[in-house]
Automatic annotation (TrEMBL):
InterPro entries: P-loop_NTPase (IPR027417), Sig_transdc_resp-reg_C-effctor (IPR016032), TPR-like_helical_dom_sf (IPR011990), TPR_MalT (IPR041617), Tscrpt_reg_LuxR_C (IPR000792), WH-like_DNA-bd_sf (IPR036388), WHD_MalT (IPR059106). This is ATP-, maltotriose-and DNA-dependent transcriptional regulator MalT. Gene3D superfamilies: Tetratricopeptide repeat domain (1.25.40.10), Winged helix-like DNA-binding domain superfamily/Winged helix DNA-binding domain (1.10.10.10). Signal peptide: none annotated. It comes from the Bacteria. PANTHER family: DNA-BINDING TRANSCRIPTIONAL ACTIVATOR DEVR_DOSR (PTHR44688:SF16). It comes from Pseudomonas antarctica.
């Protein structure tokens, strides 16, 4: 904060900066350092242009005169502008030619600030400005603040390296953080303002009605300056997520629509590129949301017209969304005929399908087998299994089909959908039979159904510990998705692949895989929010397992937000991840709050307890053991394991491959601590042998550490030492630091007592975990090179450099570049 006033050695009027002004060196320093004659700040009203110009003016070098013209956006004639400029410069005014001559002969360094240049189109005034900039002496530097870009010969100035243009004046989150009061949060202020200066200031006023204040500001600063037809057009565009000249022509009339759009852009009416594209535009999102929240009866008619245009363009997603906004539900449902299974994972389609089904029921939503499939997919995604079962049974309405082949196809679709319902409900045998029978009958044209059957079989193989079988099934499904160019379904299948890699003891490879998949989705501009949410949660799980708590927290929080928004049942794992992070810090109160919030949400959304109960009790059991409350763990583990034993045993949820073995070893730990264990070493050894045969290295790591802990508590020091050494070696090899951390939380001092504390991480250059390429990257990092510079030096892509850096951090158990360099030097990996 600062309250800067005019310096005494500055002639003429100088603005005074507000006592609430926040210096913006990120913007001011490049402007001050640029050796150009013209510095143009072009941005909508309220962007802080005047304040930034004043900030720069007050830092003018000694010996440089500063002249400030506060033009207030007025439309001046060229003659009046010349008079004002001459008066401000202290030169006599005769006519324009004389003024231009005086400017061309100017000797002493000076800065001329033209603040809030004419807001409305004024070709004559723009032409005068162009002549002034062209004729003026190099001793003069022009600083121009404007809402619209004057019609000057900017390309010529750019080619001559005499122009610096700045049009991105938003506050960064870090800057907003400095301004927050005790009752304000960064997220709320940024969501309200988007970093726009006026919006930030209004949000910080604390008057309780920021939206009303902002509307009043817009009325004065924008609507009052626009003709009625442009104000109406702007309001319409604010209700659309994106628009282009073609859509504007359809909405406002041929010839008028394109002109309206160009006029609004020229007037700086908060219109900007949509997601960095060159062919689509949007109204600045915080202002658009403000306008959409206001009641406006006419908006339904405009949404209907937008729906018509998107339909003619065969943009079915946008047409569907506009039909819903127009409350034309029958039209919206008719557009769903163009949707496929993968569209459930795009935008907010899952939520929209659920809402349509709730509000309009079976009669409207289940009019075809294709609609039944879409609604079923959304219900399974959200964990509403009872409703999904009722929905699947609606396929019987479409039997018999006209031909035997069509009838077999309908039955196969029923089997595939019912197979998934059984799979998610834990009925593995019946589910597997349905999947296999469906695969036999599904035609090649039903490739999405075939792919999902393969995915279900992959998950079941992984749950049985048959990693090779799971890998083969997953590869077949991935080939199918790639052959049909479905990046969305490929990403969905890579989640199964990541679980496979993790079980084989390569969580860092799984992390890298998911980072690549996420980058592919973003690079293809696919709005797969529900899928990206799942990827984020899985990345958080992998980061936590590798001991990267900061990255894990970032992934869990981001994934939690996205999954809450899309009503994904796997939101559960966001709460579990945050609970585990809290326990790592010793904050068990917060950990149990997260678990209670997860349970409350699952019950609120009517998710069957088979999805979440066992997982919640597993994590609670970990926490109770760490707190010394083994009796609670014992009771919970005995109760929950009944569901996974015997002839009617349930299958574990697909996202928790290690659930049952972990429940088993927690039960052993609790029994040993309470002195009531029956053959604990034999039970753990049997678990360990089964796990080793299956090649599940991460789980083997945990079991070795648990075996060592139990042996130590039973007094078998030799076995304890051997098991712990094996577990620590595997932990270093597989980078599963969380297992070691949980051991320390359950039995503090155990590793130190046995002299094994230093073996928790790799040591010595002979055990170098880094590849040669990773060492090359790390050496360049140590020399201070940026990722981009490393990419250039090694002739690899920037993404590849980031992947190598992530793997380095994972293998060394660190989170930052400086830590990686220090750790590598300590281990003797580099000089």
């Amino acid at each position: 904060m600062t309250a800067m006033t005019r310096c005494l050695d500055r002639p003429g009027f100088m603005p005074r900066l507000s006592a609430h002004h926040l210096l913006r060196p990120r913007l001011a320093e490049p402007l001050l350092a640029a050796q150009v004659r013209v510095k143009l700040l072009c941005a909508p009203g309220g962007s802080g242009k005047s304040a930034l110009l004043a900030e720069c003016a007050l830092q003018a070098p000694v010996g440089c005169q500063v002249y400030w013209l506060a033009l207030n956006g007025a439309v001046l004639s060229p003659l009046d502008f010349c008079r004002r400029l001459a008066h401000n410069l202290g030169v006599p005014f005769v006519d324009e030619a004389t003024l231009l001559l005086d400017l061309s002969h100017w000797q002493n360094p000076a800065w001329i600030f033209l603040d809030d240049f004419c807001r409305l189109p004024a070709p004559d005034l723009d032409a005068l400005l162009d002549r002034l900039l062209t004729a003026a002496s190099p001793a003069l530097t022009w600083w121009l603040g404007a809402r619209r870009r004057p019609l000057c010969n900017w390309p010529r100035l750019l080619l001559d390296d005499e122009l610096l243009e700045c049009n991105e004046l938003m506050f960064s989150p870090a800057q907003v953080q400095q301004l927050l009061g005790p009752q304000q949060t960064l997220d709320s202020v940024m969501q309200f303002s988007g970093g726009w200066c006026a919006g930030v200031r209004i949000a910080l006023l604390g008057d309780g009605h920021p939206g009303k204040t902002l509307l009043e500001y817009l009325q004065h600063e924008l609507f009052s300056t626009l003709p009625i037809e442009l104000a109406e057009a702007w309001r319409v565009l604010a209700h659309l997520p994106r628009f282009n000249p073609g859509l504007c022509e359809h909405l406002f009339g041929f010839g008028d629509g394109d002109q309206y759009l160009r006029d609004l852009q020229a007037l700086g009416a908060f219109i900007q590129p949509w997601e960095d594209t060159t062919d689509w535009l949007q109204v600045f999102p915080p202002l658009a949301q403000l306008i959409r929240d206001e009641p406006w009866p006419a908006k339904r008619a405009w949404h209907r017209r937008a729906c018509q245009w998107f339909t003619t363009q065969e943009d079915w997603q946008a047409a569907f969304e506009q039909a819903l906004l127009a409350e034309a539900y029958e039209v919206a449902v008719s557009l769903l005929q163009h949707f496929s299974f993968e569209d459930v994972f795009r935008q907010q389609n899952a939520v929209l399908l659920l809402r349509l089904h709730e509000q309009h029921g079976d009669e409207l939503m289940l009019g075809s087998a294709q609609l039944v499939g879409l609604v079923t997919a959304a219900l399974l995604f959200a964990g509403r299994f009872d409703q999904a079962g009722v929905c699947i049974d609606q396929l019987a309405r479409f039997a018999p089909q006209p031909t035997a082949a069509q009838q077999r196809y309908l039955l196969a679709r029923w089997q595939a959908q019912w197979g998934w319902l059984l799979h998610l409900g834990g009925d593995a045998e019946r589910s597997r039979a349905h999947f296999l029978e469906a695969l036999q009958a599904l035609p090649d044209s039903a490739w999405t159904s075939r792919l999902m059957c393969l995915s279900g079989l992959t998950q079941q193989a992984l749950l049985r510990g048959e990693l090779d079988v799971g890998q083969a099934l997953n590869r077949e499904a991935l080939c199918l998705a790639r052959a049909h160019g479905s990046l969305v379904l490929e990403a969905l299948l890579e989640l199964d692949h990541a679980q496979l890699l993790e079980q084989r003891g390569a969580p860092y490879r799984a992390q890298s895989l998911l980072e690549t998949v996420q980058a592919m989705l973003v690079g293809q501009r696919l709005k797969a929010g529900p899928l990206v949410g799942r990827i984020a949660l899985r990345r958080g799980h992998l980061a936590l397992r590798q001991g990267q708590d900061a990255l894990a927290a970032e992934c869990f929080e981001g994934g939690l937000t996205m999954c809450l928004h899309s009503q994904d049942k796997r939101v559960l794992y966001g709460f579990l991840g945050l609970a585990l992070l809290a326990a790592n810090r010793g904050d068990y109160a917060q950990a149990f709050i997260q678990l209670r919030e997860a349970e409350r949400l699952m019950q609120q959304r009517h998710v069957p307890d088979t999805v979440y109960r066992a997982v919640l009790l597993l994590v609670s059991g970990h926490f109770w053991l760490q707190q010394g409350r083994a009796e609670l763990t014992l009771e919970a583990m005995r109760r929950v394991l009944r569901h996974f034993r015997g002839p009617c045993a349930k299958q574990a949820p697909p996202a928790t491959l290690e659930l049952i073995p972990r429940l088993e070893y927690l039960l052993v730990l609790a029994e040993v601590k309470l002195g009531c264990a029956d053959q604990p070493i034999a039970r753990l050894t049997a678990l360990l042998e089964t796990t080793r045969q299956r090649g599940m290295l991460c789980l083997e790591t945990e079991l070795q550490l648990v075996l060592g802990e139990v042996a130590w508590q039973l007094g078998d020091t030799a076995l304890a030492r051997r098991a712990l050494q094996a577990g620590l070696a595997l932990a270093a090899r597989c980078q599963v630091q969380q297992a070691i951390r949980e051991l320390r939380l359950r039995s503090p001092g155990l590793l130190s007592e046995l002299g094994l504390e230093t073996q928790a991480s790799p040591s010595g250059a002979a055990e170098n975990p880094l590849s040669q390429r990773e060492l090359e990257v790390l050496q360049l990092i140590a020399l201070g090179n940026s990722n981009l510079e490393i990419a250039d030096r090694l002739f690899i892509s920037l993404h590849t450099v980031k992947t190598h850096a992530r793997r380095i951090h994972s293998k060394l158990g660190v989170e930052r570049r400086t830590q990686a360099v220090a750790k590598a030097k300590t281990l003797g990996l580099m000089g």
